[in-house]
Design brief:
The complex is a heterodimer. Chain A is mostly helical. Chain A is built from 13 helices and 3 strands; from the N terminus they run ααααβααααααααββα. Chain B is mostly helical. The chains are: A mainly alpha, B mainly alpha.
């Protein structure tokens, strides 16, 4: 009986969870006039007009390309610096290791609103404003600490004997790390990639501040749908639905490993 | 765990240190620099010492925003953590259903934050929004643009909708890592479901729940885009949380000095509470391991 009750609870919860997303989907298939015309549970005259507009208008679809570009660069940077560091934290004791670990985390605590101006000045100095790399670098501020934390958990789950055997067999550290160790924790790498993707994808303030036109992210493009006749809700909803798609694809690839993500952590 | 002492491990940490220092320390020093100066123009600045800090701490609107922020983060943690754990407990343990539930749970996490606010504007509209129409259909007058209480309910509801899945994903990860042997032992001892939860599942989830509480505390304390888009901080100032007020000061009034002093205080508050949570969660329950 208990099992059944919890299953019903879960179904109710997931249904409620989907409602706002369903509502966005519902709106994305209607024209603005239909949306504002009256309340309706489903689109009375479904149309793909909004989606077609997004896929044919460069100012729209380039937003997605820009976002995917800097999110990918960020994932690559975050993973490549976090992998060796997480290995160090999981295998060795060294001077200031615990302080370093907590310091990394404190970088998630800085109010982004505050960092906008200094970031703008910093990246202007380097001539990086309106480039994808600027946003990718700025997002490492919160993604690298998280990546180190998650990866460290996965690595601590791998037996140290594997390292020792490999060294006895004459593997150098880089060769061991890439050919033996990384395949062992590939699910961890997948999960970390997902979390880096997610936090970089949804961030708006920094991404908007550091870009003007060339590297403008989709979330910023969406804030510009206000026209003389007010917001175009249908177009906005269609764009919103499309922002979910890339992340949903990423999570589909790592779904089997999600669960292990944080469980092996040392905290 | 017995780790070997090896200071050469620093070389492996160095890239992380360099990249995070570039993004964190240089901007932080700029902020510290602003916070002790009065800036009139590019080359006109006066050292003012702690004046901005005194100003900011004496600002009653900031104190209001701070209490509002504590109330908000407190409520959010009190709702999201237990709810997330309950969902994780109810989730299927194997089969294709697991994949479906995981993907559905993650959907709200993947929507850009300003879009979340926009969805909820229309979702709660009393004329054409599903939630607004449903609540008004029950005979309750509900309008988050007019009543501060309704605005709070809407913002909390949005926050819970948006972030509970993260807590659930983390808690589920913790639950899946418990070896089956524990549950078999509990079954042989005839432990009740509550006892199993209290003495096996909850202690084993401590690690992931620490991460969940820390992440949720930090992010809810820094919340900006969602309530800003949804309510604009209103009606009145009723949903003006700390970062909304901070941006008003920094961008709206262009008072760099006070804004910088404000953000340093803001940062220190989060740091203090995160450290307290971290210590508390590291130590709670360890005394019970017999």
């Amino acid at each position: 009986m208990r099992l059944k009750k919890s299953a019903i609870g879960l179904i109710i919860y997931l249904t409620l969870l989907m409602l706002p997303i369903y509502w966005m989907f519902n709106m994305s298939l209607q024209t603005n006039a239909d949306i504002l015309g009256g309340f309706s549970m489903y689109p009375a005259n479904p149309t793909l007009k909004n989606y077609i507009k997004i896929f044919t208008d460069e100012s729209w679809y380039s937003g997605y390309i820009n976002s995917i570009t800097y999110v990918s660069i960020n994932m690559v940077i975050s993973l490549s610096v976090a992998l060796p560091a997480a290995y160090a934290f999981s295998r060795y004791r060294f001077l200031g290791d615990k302080h370093m670990f907590f310091w990394l985390l404190t970088n998630r605590m800085a109010p982004p609103a505050v960092f906008l101006l200094p970031f703008f000045q910093l990246y202007s100095t380097f001539g990086l404003i309106d480039t994808h790399i600027a946003v990718a670098l700025a997002h490492t501020l919160f993604n690298v600490p998280l990546a180190v934390w998650i990866l460290e958990g996965f690595m601590s789950g791998v037996s140290r004997e594997i390292d020792e055997t490999a060294y006895i067999d004459g593997y150098s550290f880089p060769r061991f790390f890439i050919t033996v160790f990384m395949p062992l924790i590939r699910s961890g790498i997948g999960v970390t990639a997902f979390f880096c993707f997610m936090f970089s994808w949804v961030e708006l303030l920094l991404a908007r501040t550091l870009t003007t036109t060339v590297a403008k992210p989709i979330a910023a493009v969406m804030t510009r749908t206000v026209s003389a006749s007010g917001l175009d809700w249908g177009l906005l909803a269609a764009a919103g639905i499309l922002t979910i798609v890339p992340g949903a694809l990423v999570i589909w690839f790592v779904r089997n490993h999600m669960a292990k993500g944080f469980a092996l952590g040392r905290v | 765990m017995n780790k070997t002492e090896n200071n050469k491990a620093w070389f492996l940490v160095l890239p992380v240190f360099v990249i995070v220092a570039f993004s964190a320390i240089i901007p932080l020093m700029t902020i510290v620099n602003y916070s002790v100066q009065d800036i009139f123009g590019p080359n006109q600045r006066v050292f003012v010492g702690t004046e901005w800090f005194v100003d900011v701490l004496g600002d009653p609107r900031l104190r209001d925003a701070l209490w509002r922020q504590f109330l908000f983060s407190g409520l959010v943690l009190l709702i999201e953590i237990p709810l997330g754990v309950l969902i994780a407990l109810a989730m299927p343990k194997q089969g294709w259903l697991v994949s479906v539930v995981l993907v559905v749970l993650a959907l709200p996490l993947l929507i850009p934050w300003n879009v979340i606010g926009t969805i909820w504007i229309i979702f709660t509209r009393p004329d054409i929004g599903l939630l607004g129409v449903a609540i008004n259909g029950l005979g309750v007058q509900f309008d988050h643009t007019a009543s501060p209480l309704d605005a709070w309910v809407t913002v909390i509801l949005m926050e819970v909708w948006h972030w509970t899945p993260l807590v659930a994903l983390l808690a589920y990860a913790g639950l899946r890592a418990i070896p089956d042997a524990y549950f078999q032992a509990a079954r042989i001892d005839g432990a009740s479901a509550w006892a199993t939860f209290r003495y096996i599942q909850l202690p084993k989830m401590r690690g992931v729940l620490t991460i969940a509480v820390l992440l949720r505390f930090m992010d809810s304390f820094l919340i900006y885009a969602e309530p800003f888009v949804l309510t604009g901080g209103g009606p009145g100032n009723s949903t003006t949380f700390l970062s909304i007020y901070l941006v008003k000061v920094a961008v709206g009034q262009f008072d760099l000095g006070p804004a910088a002093a404000f953000s340093i205080i803001y940062f220190l508050i989060i740091l203090l509470f995160s450290w307290l949570f971290y210590q508390a969660l590291l130590n709670v329950g360890t005394g019970e391991k017999r």
